[in-house]
Amino acid sequence: VNADMLDKKGRTPLSWAAAKGREAVVRLLLERQDVNLGELDRRGQTPVLWAAARGHEAIVKLLLDHGGVDPDRPDFKGYRPLEYAAANGYFGVVWLLE
Prior knowledge:
This is Ankyrin. This protein is an all-alpha fold.
């Protein structure tokens, strides 16, 4: 099974799990060696950006602790995960990303 298979929106299973707050799925995917933590979807958004924008603090922490994640990488509009988290009032996520 290809853990980085892209759907029609260019999202991977890790991006979807991060966006939906599925911590158990994120943990499972992080155990694999073939998962690209920095995979960009068609909007230039990464799994950590999705988790930050939706306020999934535990998932942001998991991704950061795992390593290989660039928490400052902006999407194609120029917004970083920290900016999405702050704009949406997810200050626990902001604290993790600072």
